[in-house]
Amino acid sequence: MNTICAISTPHGTGGIAVARISGPEAFEIADRIWKGKRLSDATSHTAHYGCIIDPEQHDDPELDHGVATVFRAPRSFTGENIVELAIHGSPWLQRELINLLIRQGARLAEPGEFSRRAFTNGRLDLAEAEAVADMIATSSRAAHRIAMSHMRGDLSRKLSALRDDLLRLCALLELELDFSEEDVTFADRNELISLASHINHTVSAMARSFATGNALKNGINTAIVGATNAGKSTLLNRLLNDDKAIVSPIHGTTRDTIEDTAEINGRLYRFIDTAGLRHTDDPIECIGISRSIAAISKADIIIWMIDPENPDTQTPAHFTNSNTPIIAVVNKADLGLPHPAIPIKTAATITLSALADVDITPLTDALATIANIDDTTAEITITNARHYQALNAATQSTQRAIEALSANIPADLVAQDLRETIHHLSSITGTITTPDILTHIFSHFCIGK
């Protein structure tokens, strides 16, 4: 296996950039461009100050001063020898260092190749490797907590325990087959059904957690809806603390949905500012209103902006029949206008001024209460769609096994469903996988990871 290199820090200018070298020749390649302690002789997990040099430049070979950190196989991220070179974060300097490493015999790493090598060398299973990518992409405290749990191996250990239970169940069925003509009982069908039901319950609960996990990872879809000039775009800007949406007194200014995310109380919300709901003959505005209605249908929470200056222009008919929780926000509280009647049942009703510098904590508290995603009590929360699909398939195959056991179907047919369940669960951690699946998964990682 050849030696690879890449910049592991984000692209662009920064105080520090880190280049990672991994493979059988990592120490030798690094020593050829390093002036300081010989890295091939360095103790693992030690850092050394020195100078990066270009051996081809005889007049002025020094490229930068930096720190080299040494990790010896197998006690490294990839399970191979690794050298990490920390240099100043000039983009030009980063490019020169990578080119220098390539000229010395390293190869530029492919996306996710460091993590793939960690998986191949048994340093991480597939679920833990995917959690590394999730950790890099986390945008909220809740998503970070889940990624950390998966990186620690909580998911993998749970799946391993389920796999052991399934193997035990298969073994009992195999014994039933082997001694079918003998008067020997290893486990009656009720005991087998009880064990299979426990497995099915655990797997299906993990699959159901995906709805919560997906919301925590990608954001809780929150549509801001209402009539034109009700203050939707102003509220979006307040929630994002940014002038994301154009605000004007002209009706129909927002012609399309505008989306952005914000972390509130440790959870990520995906706010969607929609075009004002009203009757119009403007074909462009009609398209925007159609998209608004589509956003309402996909929302996890609806913030309904009500303009007390024009209470008769409100159009709750677009979401009256929805089961989605609705927060009614009576805007323009700074004008001191009478509170309009709320014609539909809402999860919360709040009065505020989106334009004035008024505390919007009541709204953010209502969002947290209505979201009601308790990410601290779930034993395992699934955030990965691939894991969700595998768990769904495992739920179905265990259910078939339970039904077969209940109907006294021959043990060999029951065992086939259980082996299918083992296959689906094993695909999550990579115990059973294919090169194509691995290529697809790791191609979505960043190059330096």
N-to-C CA distance: 18 Å
- Count of helices? 13
How many domains is the backbone divided into? 3
Give me the CATH architecture of the largest domain, please: 3-Layer(aba) Sandwich
* CATH first level of the largest domain: Alpha Beta
Q: Say which CATH homologous superfamily of the largest domain is assigned.
A: P-loop containing nucleotide triphosphate hydrolases
Strand content: 15-25%
What is the helix content?
A: 40-55%
What form results from the Cα inertia axes? Answer: flat
**Overall pLDDT metric:** 83
Low-confidence stretches: 250-255
Rg (CA only): 29 Å
Question: What labels describe this entry?
Answer:
449 residues, alpha/beta, Gyrase A, domain 2, Four Helix Bundle (Hemerythrin (Met), subunit A), Rossmann fold, 13 helices, flat
Write up what this structure looks like.
Helices cover 43% and strands 18% of the residues. With 449 residues, the chain is of the alpha/beta class. The protein folds into three domains: 106 residues, Probable tRNA modification gtpase trme, domain 1 (Gyrase A, domain 2, 2-Layer Sandwich); 143 residues, tRNA modification GTPase MnmE domain 2 (Four Helix Bundle (Hemerythrin (Met), subunit A)); 153 residues, Rossmann fold (3-Layer(aba) Sandwich), CATH 3.40.50. Strands 3-4-5-6-2-1-7 form a seven-stranded mixed sheet. Strands 9-10-8-11-12-13 form a six-stranded mixed sheet, sandwiched between helices. A hairpin with an 8-residue loop joins strand 4 and strand 5. Helix 4 runs antiparallel to helix 5. The longest helix is centred in the middle third of the chain and has 30 residues. The protein starts with a strand and ends in a 7-residue tail after the last helix. About 1% of the residues have low confidence.
